[in-house]
Each structure stands twice: as structure tokens, then as C-alpha cells.
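Summarise what follows for lecture notes:
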Amino acid sequence: MRKNDGGSRVLAGALIIGLAVSLLLLVLEPVAGGRHYEYALVLCLALAAIAALASVSPRTFFGKAVAVFVLVCGLGLGAGNLAVVSSDAEIVRAYQSVFDALDSGRNPYTSGTIFHEIESFGPVYGNFNYPPLEIAPYYLAYRIAGTWNMTVLAVTMVLIHALCCLALFRMFPAIPPVRFLPFLPMFLLGEIKTNAALAFLLTALVLWAIRRAAECPRPGDRYVIAVLFGLGAMTKFLTLPLMVAYYAREAAGKSLRSLARAGVDILVVLATACLVMAPFGVVNVMKNTALFNVVLEDRAVLTTFYPNVLSGPLAWLGLQAIYPLAALVLFGLVIRAFRKSGLYTALFSAVTASLLLSSTPEPQFLPIVLFLVVVAQGTALEKEASAGEGRDRTSAGVDGGRRVSLPVKRTVAAGLALVLLAVSAAAGPAAEDDRQGPTRTGPRVPFCLASRPPGAVIGGARFSLDTQGPPAEVITRPGAPPRFSGLISPARKKRARAWIELGALTLASSVDYWLRNAFPEDKDFRLDFDSQFSRVFLLEGWRFDSNEFSVNWAHGLAGALYYQFGRANRQSWPYSWLMAFAASTWWEIVGETKEVIAINDEIMTGLGALALGEPWYRIGHFLCHQPGPLMRGLGFLDPAVKLNHWLDRRYPADDHVQPGWHEIKLFAGGRRLSSSDAITGTDVYFGFEARLTSLPEYGRPGAVRRDVRDAFKSEITLDCATRGGRTEETRFFTKAVPWGRFVQEIGPDGRGSALFLGFGSAFEYFKKRPLAPYDMDPIPVWSDLSELRLEEPRSFTDKLAILHLAGPVLDWTVFRRASRFRAFVEAYLDFALVNATALNDYSRLHDIAGLKTTVFYYGYYYGFGGTVTAGARLDWKGLNVRGLVDLAAWGSADLLDRFPADVTNNAHLSDTRARALAGLAWRIPRTSFELFFDIEGVRRRGSLAEVRAVTLEKKAYLGLAFVF
């Protein structure tokens, strides 16, 4: 798709405009009756990511980095979809009403009995508004299963998606099927909440038919394609822009004969569509599908209006009536701009434009868009392979000369990284000790951007807990920077000392735990064989515990401290992570033998150790090696590093490499807060912020392509807002991006770009000042319930502790002489301690007795969900402009409460958070001071049973930062 994208600037401009408009709509929410403004922003971000994938070479697209990114995204999206499907979903009830109409002999396009639902209003009844082919597979499934529910619907859609995957494999017999395996989770589970499956299948069949017609043309191929387009037009609308782009390109600049052929094909399309509509009435179907979807006033009668990039601003301005014409004109301009482009470029541009111009955002079509890109890149890969048939096979692979089996294994390894890290632990230490011991022969090869001498060979990489081996595929060109020192200290790794320090801390914690009795409920099991066997091996003790919020989120800090003992003794990050997980498991099973094995503590402590521990170590280690008393004093933020530096003072190790980029700030200023619950005020705002890009070659002239097996990005942010001597809000954020693929090319003039694609982990803590006494001083479980004041409605304030377990990270930087532009997109699977936003409102109408233990006592619940974050920053001559959008959703874990007998009302809770931030900063010339101004909007939505609650806060910050 890259070779024929002369209109790529048009597409890029459309996506940038879409992002800006959707962000503006999200912040302002200007449309009366509009809902879920975040859908448009998510759609634009996803389309931008897919467009980036479409623009890379086939080698890169089918390489390891993209495979890992798509695999993790697909698994995360699939898990999220499975977590939120509901048996009471609108689509299930709508189809049931369609089936009832058909069974009673009525036309669903005229019956007026089809179920619809408008948010904040309730059910309404009208006609069916999907094309008729969308009835067939689900009605067949309904008849076969003998019942209709969300399970039948989801299974039917997954089976249809499986046919699409089969079509993909059949399209490319020359490409090993394993190349497409990382995309299967996205295709199979990327959308199972709404019925986009049949449009997916018809799109796959159309692309297959187009490919076959191009490879070996036959007279009847054009009619097969036309019939498939006709059938696709009778599914959801995405096939229509493909058809328009295809026939516009076929007829562009050709003879009258070709125009006539295209006209005949379009007549076949229309005839096919009319045959499908005939049983229901062509006019009836058109009125309730095509016309219904483009007339915004008609849509609002039966469905909730979700503002999109074009429809949102027009509805805001009161110009809904011109929406159909405006959308048609803009879509026509896009088709005209790309009608002479390559086939797949034209198809992709048409689909992207249609999604941006549609009346409401349609993120359910994103897997189909990705499928189109996979077909385009697969076609390009086949052309490259056929063009290089005479070359040596070892130099013609997709992964730069490796055999097919090796990247396949590594793709699978990347997708299951946590499992493989644990498995590797058993074999890693012995081999590593042999290499690092004093008897080793030959020096370790340091990282260097300088050209290697002739004959030098880079050893093949292997997967190991020692992630700091020599990098692969480093390319240098004239003007490359001078040689950097190695990333590995020549000193021995202090593995024994790491375990001694960890053991000492764990022993001290155990003694302290057994000497005090802080939690009266912590007497679940006796210290005998039968009780402990049932507790550990029969899984009777595996529960979500009942501790207060401050205790449970702080387990992440304990995991970070465990992690430090490994890293400060020069262990790799996977090994240090394994140490933290081992210490957490030991503590839960052996240290706390009298109580439950807390699942939440194991996740926060063991799995959260990387997100908190790696940036803590990286930034502490950096500060310890900086000149000046202030920077070195800040190095005490990581006492483990300071302690081990002191222990090594007789034999100091030169293991520090200056990072490629860093930014550390101390800031203070004022904050103005306005809230939907009438809380308004001005606060003192201050904090600390540190960011590192550890790769020393980052931003330097030269070309680099290599795997990153140590921290690429590290970040810590701590800020507070105080009023009248009391802390109003506290936020603590950390992020580590430890693994991925780095590609950079910068010329001698400083112009170029850098791209990183990998996986990361992050942690966020947020807490508002409590107002109620039971929120200020939490009441222990099974203590005096009178202190909870249950006769009053609850008054819990917001609090969150979010562990972004793992997810794909895309980081892109463009360098110019006087400027730098960086953009990033991240998506994470979350485990979170979530304040129940709807609990306060729920308590005004219902008794909260019987709710989950932590909800009843402390107002929060354990939740699983996901977060998507996107941001950008432009630095130019002392000025920087930045923006960030963060979208998150969580649902409660409704199983394994510590006291299940007490949970008589196990109502499901769900919460979302949408956060948008825009900022401007100016560096005062010839000083280290920076003036900044930020605006931020945060919306929290929550539900508990039938109760819904929404809060909105707007914040403005103004202050001064000291930057070093």
C-alpha cells in the first residue's frame, strides 16, 4: 500500500482533523442528547494506528514487533469484550423482537414492534433498521439452538469470523499460515457485542474474489464480484464504500467501453440487492436502513445519538438537515482523490473516510479494516517474494534473513511473555553464572554504534532471563555518533546478596506481622496440616481479601521494594520481577498462614513489581550518577541503590550509561477546580516528575534497528493539591516499557524519526480527601458497625489504584533541527481497586447491606478492565505543547469474596473514566525554569444495579517548574 499512496497526506490530514474534532467534542460535550463522546476518539485513534501499520513495508508488517503488538491488542480486546457482554444487551432483545415478528407473519420493516433502547430514556419500539441479510444467519442459529440469548449470538458471530480467517488462509497459499496467527484473536474476538460479522464475511469474500480475478482472470469473475458486492450491501454498510472505491477506480480515466462494463456490473449489484430486499419490500427496507441512518432526526427517535467527527459538529451547530449532503460530498472528494491510487490504498481510504463520516462512530468495523490491511500487505509480500525468487532463501525472509521457524517461535514467545519468563527461570541462573563468573574467557561485547570490523558476527539471540545481551541488527552509516560504553557492568552480578537482602526484609516483615493483631478478621485458618492443605492446594484460601484501600494498594510498593533488591544487585529485569513474585507468593502462603491467600495482593505485589520497581530503579540509578548535591540528594529516593553503591564502594562498578533523553522537574503553582457536584476552589499544586529514555543512541545521528530487552522508557510522577493545609488530591503514576523493537534513522542534519513498538506496564494511584469519618479512618471488618453510620447515605470520595498489567506501546518521534514531535499510543489490561461511583446514589435508595465486603466497608471494589491512552508533545525553541487522552473501563470481580456468606446482594459494579489534558509550557531563556499552563477534564461514570451516576471535573493549572 505504500507505493501507491499519493494521497497519503489527504488521509493523514483527515485523521488529524478527526482526532482534533473528537477530542474537542469529548471535552465540551456540546450536543444535546449526545452520549459516549469517547467512541469517536477511540475510533480515530484506532484508525490512525491501523493507518500506521498500513504504511510500513511488508517485512515490517509481518515482523515480530507488529505481531506482538497486534496479538496483545487482540487478546486484550477479546478479553474486554468477553468481560462486558450482557445477556440483557439491546441487540439480543432487538433480534428477539424480529424473530417474534417473523414467526407471527409480520414484516419487521413495517411492524413497529422491534425493540430499541435510548440511553437515559428507556425502551422504544419501531421498525428494524438493519439490512435484511443481517437477519438470516441469526434466525438460522435461533432455529437450530431452539433459544435466543447472548451466547447464541456470540457463538454465531465467532463462527462467521472463523470463516473469514479461513478465507484469509486460502487467499495466500504461498504464505505460511503462521504469519497470520497473531491476527486471529483480533479477527475472532475483536467484535462480539454487535453484529458486524456478516459484513466481515462478505468483505473477506469480495477481497478473495478480487485477488482471484487479478491472478487468473476469467469472464465470469466480474459478475461474481458484483453479486458479492450486492450481498454485502445488504449487510451493515461497510461494504458500500468498498464497492464505490472499487468501481470508481475501475472506471477512472478509461474508455467508454470500460465505463459501460462498470455500469453493467453496478446494475448486477443493484439487482442482487433488490432480490434480497424483495420479500420485505424494497421501499420499506430503504426507508428504514439507508434513509434512517443518514437523517439524524429520524435516528434520534429510536436510537441514542453518539456524535461522530462530522455529525457531531453539525448537530452542535444545529445543521443536522445538511448532514446527508455534507457526508456525501466529502466522501465523493475522497473517492476522487484516490481513484487513481493503488487498489488497496483506494479501498482503505474509502473505508476510513466512511467511518469518519458516518452518522455515529462504528468501532465494531475496526477488525474488518485491519483485515483489509492484512490482505494488502500479504499481496505486497507475495510480490516481493516473486520478485526475489533467484535470491538466497536466507536473505529473502520477512524478518531480515532469519528462517521462518525462528520468528514464529519468537512471536509466540512474545505473546506469552509472562509464562515464558517464569519457565526460563529454572534454566537461566546456571548458564548466566557461567558467563558472568571470574573464569570466563574473552570479554563481553559492549553495545556500539560504530561499524563492526569485517568478519565480525553478531551472535544469535536467545530467550533468557538475562535480557542484556548484545543487540541485534544495529546498522550504522557515515556520520554515526562515537562509540558508547556497554550497558552491562563488568562487575559480577550480586545474586546471593540480592536474595540475602530480600530474605532479611521478608523475615522482618513476618516477625512484625505475627507480633501485632491489626486485623481482627485475619483468623481464617488454623496452623495444622488439614487446614493448610485445604487453604493452599484445595484452593479454599484463594480469595479477594477484605482489607482497606490504603493497605491493599500499598502492596504494589512492597513489590517494588522486592524488585529493587534484584535490580540494585545488577540482575536483569525479568529475574528481578521473578524475585518479587517469589517473595509475594512466599508471603501470602507462608508468611500469612492464618488468613486467606489474597489474590489481589498477589497481583499487586508480584505482577505490579515491574510497573513500580523498574522506573524507581532506573530514575534512582540515574540520579545517583549526576553531578551536584541536589540531583545526588534526590538519589536517596531509591535507598536500595544507595545501599548497594555504599557496599560496593571499594570496588565501584562503572555500570552507568547516560540516557538518550531525560527530563526531571520539580514544580509548584496553583490549581482551579470546578466540579459537577458544586465543589469549586483554588488549591496549591506541587510535585515531582521524572522521565527517561534509556537508549543512549536515541536522538543521535545514525541508523539503528534492534531489539530492546531493557528499559526503553521509565516514568514517575507524583503531584498533590492542597487547600487550607489539607491534601485535597494525590496522584502517583509510574510506567516502565522494558521490551520491544526500536527503529531509528536520523541524518547528519538532525532530521529523522524513531519508532518503538513493544510492551509496557504502568501503575496509577489517585485519591481525593475523604469527607466522611468512616472514609477518613476505615472501620475494620467485624468491628463496631455503629461507626459506619449506616443510617446515613454513603459519602465516599473518589479513589483508584490501577495496575496496568501489560499491553502494547507504540512510541513515535520525529526529529527536526529545532523541534521534536513525539506521539504515543498505549493499551493495557487492568486490575484495579475502584471507588464505586454509583454507591453514594445507590445508598440513598437502597440498603447497602449484603454488598461485596470491600464495597460495604470501604466503598471500593476489585475490578478488571482496560485502559487506552494516547498523547502527543511538540517541543520547539523552548516551547512545548502537549495533549493526552485516557479512556478506561472496569467491571467488578463478582467471585471469591472473602466472606461469601455475607454477600447476599452480589450486584455487579462497573465504572469508566475519560480524561483529557492539554498543556502549554515555555522555557524561560537562559534559565532552568519553565512556565506551564494545563487544562484537564475528568469524567467518571458508574453503575450499581439499576443506579447510574456521573461526575465531571474541570481543572486548570498554572505554575513554575524547575527543570534539570
User: Anything to note?
Assistant: The CA atoms of residues 42 and 940 lie 17 Å apart. DSSP finds 34 helices and 17 strands in the chain. The longest helix spans residues 150-171. Residues 491-653 form one domain.
